[in-house]
Amino acid sequence: MTFDHSKERQHHVVALLASFVLMAGAVSPAAAEPILVHRYDFENNVNDTAGTIDGTLPTNSEQTPEYDGDADDKVVGNYAIYFDGDNDYATIPKTAGTEELLAAGGYSLSFWTKLARNNVQGYFMCDAGNSGNLYLQIYPSGAFNGSIGTIIGPTWDFTNPDDGKAWPVGEWNHHAIVVPEIATGETGTATWYVDGVALDTITLGPFAGLVGDLCLGNRTFDLARDYQGWLDDLQIYQGALSADDVRHLHDNPGATVPEPGSWALLLAVGAGFSLMAYRKKRPSQST
Question: Is the pTM of this model over 0.85?
């Protein structure tokens, strides 16, 4: 008899469609990847290499941070930004885009820090206005000695990472702040990760909005919260990073989420399934 090749072609088409169904499930809206919308790698500037909101530096040279290219004083690229603890700061302008991103919930921050001193209260990042709604800080004294603290919209929380010991000096640490999407009138749980591990959670409501620009290394209305140390590779995502995403960013300095090649890998897997089905051994033909 003669083998019916049309059935084999049908099997191939079915296998191909099935592979695309598998790929579609892997990237379904329920499991949507976070989107990198802003990135500041401080390569001798405060430019946004992923978006369009470039940072700015003060016009007063005595308040302008430096860019440090020493091998031990950077994580990504050729430079990190260094704040000397004496009124240095940089700002990311408050825009409709940043307001919309934060107000919508479901955002994440990823950045690296290395402290030069830990005996003063210093801000990694803050809402520049007085009584603002986003503060990420090192809090070294009093009841919160050795803690890192957060104010997010406008809930306070302090986390002591090491039983009252001062935060380490001269060591790079990776931080990730993950804030889920929170509906009006609801609450959610934000998580602060350090070096790929969840350090603490904070229960909060929808973001209350920025009072002023985002300030790096200080707070601009009085310059009274000097951070002395280095900051590198600040990434801002739309959407909540997963625990695996955070570990990936920590384990691979300079990486982003999603990992490059994720779509290519999915396509390769799908094509592989199809090729295997197509090359399936055919029955021998006879007359």
Answer: no
